[in-house]
Amino acid sequence: MQLIDGKTVSQAVKERVRDEIAHDGLKIGLAVVIVGNDQASRVYVNNKKKACEFCGITSYEYALPEETTEEQLLELVDTLNNDGKVNGILVQLPLPEHINEKKIIEHISPMKDVDAFHAVNVGRIMIGDYAFLPCTPAGVMELIHSTGTEIAGKECVVIGRSNIVGKPMAMLLLHENGTVTVCHSRTKNLAEVCRRADILVSAVGRAGFVTADMVKEGAVVIDVGMNRNAEGKLCGDVDFDGVAPKCSFITPVPGGVGPMTIAMLMENTLRAKKLQS
Ligand code: NAP
Q1: Whole-model pTM?
Q2: pLDDT tens string 135-156
């Protein structure tokens, strides 16, 4: 069994982005909008800021109070859509309940939608002609590539069908000619389906969900889950100690998929700049 080191792979992606920006002398800006005081969101936003600094991207942070109205947020998005210094716009989710997330996302210019959540970008992912890749699934693809595993023709099982992880993940694996099965809470014989997987990606959000009996000998296992265990420690969906001995490659949590998401955001911001040039 070999560990897939997300810190090393994500560092390589950020260095690639940094070197290209420096080489081409690009001026790139990313606007990060956060509404309210969600502590986890604050941590993510700070990490995004640090990654921007590393890559040579200017980050513009808009920290708005909890009581910000939908109207005010739409106005800010308008301003950022029209601001030539801003190449990418990221509105940190979740938003407070009184703001319609879908409406805000659909208001971001698809050319600046570095999260790839806008329906136009989601549609492009479906047809395989994408400007931006959704950050977390794109990060998973980088991790799989880093192992040298060929995806074409392999049985790939994705557990989870959310719009931000499971569905786009399945699409990216399909574009690389994997034979893809998507599982969810209504899937029958889940363990049996998972045992077919040469590549198993879990994005459920439940600690200890994937156990050794669900994993084929020699599988590549990617754990997208970010959960807290009974002791409050960050952990994934996979029972790591039980599953790891059966795998050819496995991601740890933390230090697996997590660092990749921000690295891919940096790459998308660079892509946005190129699209707009
Ligand atoms: P989500 O929207 O809650 O989706 C979870 C999916 O898991 C759903 O499709 C659900 O099925 C499925 N599921 C739930 N219980 C199941 C069961 N018993 N059997 C089979 N499938 C089941 O979550 P998400 O946003 O995709 O995120 C998933 C996990 O990834 C979370 O832990 C999240 O924190 C983590 N995450 C990590 C990163 C990162 O950067 N590392 C980024 C994004 C998300 P139904 O559709 O049938 O309900």
Answers
A1: 0.97
A2: 999 999 999 999 999 999 999 9
pLDDT at 92 over 90: yes
Residue-wise pLDDT for 37-56, tens only, equals: 999 899 999 999 999 999 99
* Spatial distance between the Cα atoms of 224 and 258, rounded to a whole number of angstroms: 8
> Which 8-state DSSP code applies to residue 99?
S
Give dist(CA 242, CA 239) in Å, integer: 6
The question of whether 239 is a catalytic residue gets the answer no
User: Is the peptide bond prior to 134 cis by the omega test (within 30 degrees of 0)?
Assistant: no
Using a 6 Å cutoff on CB, does residue 228 contact ligand 1?
no
Q: Ligand 1 in contact with 185 (CB < 6 A)?
A: yes
Which segments within the chain are labelled E, that is strand?
Answer: 2-3, 29-35, 58-64, 88-91, 155-159, 179-183, 199-202, 220-223, 227-228, 234-235, 249-250
Q: Which residues are within 8 A (CB) of 150 and not within 5 positions of it... i.e. 6 or more apart?
A: none
Residues 193/220, Cβ–Cβ less than 8 Å:
no
For residue 92, indicate whether it is catalytic: yes
Measured in Å, residue 161 CA sits from the centre of ligand 1 at 7
Pocket test for ligand 1, best of 165, 187, 235 (most atoms within 8 A of CB): 165
Quick one: which atom of ligand 1 is closest to the CA of 161? Answer: 9
| Bridge partners (DSSP) listed for residue 29 | 58
Mean pLDDT of all residues in 161-179? 97
3-state secondary structure of 165: coil
> Could you tell me if the CB of 252 is within 6 A of ligand 1?
no
**Residue 219 to residue 196: CA distance in whole angstroms:** 9
Atom number of ligand 1 nearest to Cα 166: 26
- 14, 112, 113, 115: which is the annotated catalytic residue? 115
- The answer to whether 87 and 61 have CB atoms below 8 angstroms apart is no
